[in-house]
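EI: anyone free to look at a 308-residue chain?
SC: sure, send it
EI:
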Amino acid sequence: MNTTQKRAVVFAYHNVGVRCLKVLLAGGVDVALVVTHQDSASENIWFESVVSVCETEGIPYITPDDPKSPDLLARIAAVQPDLMFSFYYRHMLPQAILDVAPAYNMHGSLLPRFRGRAPVNWAVLHGATEIGATLHEMTVKPDAGAIVAQQAVPILPDDTAFEVFGKVTVAAELALYGVLPALLAGSAPRIPNDLAQGSYFGGRKPEDGRIDWRQPADAVYNLHRAVAPPYPGAFTDVGARRFVIERARPYRGARADAIGGLPPGLAVVDNAIVGVCGDGRALAIHSLLADGVRIAPAELQSLLAQAQ
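SC: here you go
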């Protein structure tokens, strides 16, 4: 065995967890234990499995419910890791665990911007044109430690959060891959993380996807992009029925004047579904779902007439 090989405990989940775990293995790190999550039956599991990687590579893994449990701390301490990493693990780690060994977290934004939960979704919602991934030292305060590496990626005007998350996953892999040799050698940079220059956001709930059609079209479109499937989706209710926008673009139809006289909300124009917004502009809704089934323009027009 290589006596210079570093031993690590890795907290990981989701696509970023999978890709960054593979970077550590490719870099010769002895991953002695992975701490991950059990998939929830109530969640749409569209992402890759850290457990599957562990089973393929023969890495011991555990899925504790409580990150503050004495048993978890004892299990980690027994490994005697040189380093610890957190790659999209969903629990905050207590100080007792962080005291075991130097710990680094991969965050899905360019810190200090978009600290906290769901950074990609918040960035798209706010119309950001750039995001990325940041590897930083872990502290009890979330996303506050010194920055070790960053990789930026663009957010294009029509990108959904799902598409941006794919870019952030690649950015995370590149950031870790580039700095790992220096990190293992103890010579990685430590760039101050000036929180006063950044922003913090909390978690998002499905209800946050409710559309307020009184808002400008740009705001409604950004909401759609931020939560489009496989996320829960931007939705609106007509009577007792709930409609989720699956695919949309800003409306650029030849008869934009026909939109101007319509009230905010769903409408059918030229046999096409549109969402009229508070500034008189609209979204062309190419796929509108009800109970997971695509709704045709004629069916929506009939439902709208009944609701009047």
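EI: The chain has a mean pLDDT of 93.
SC: 👍
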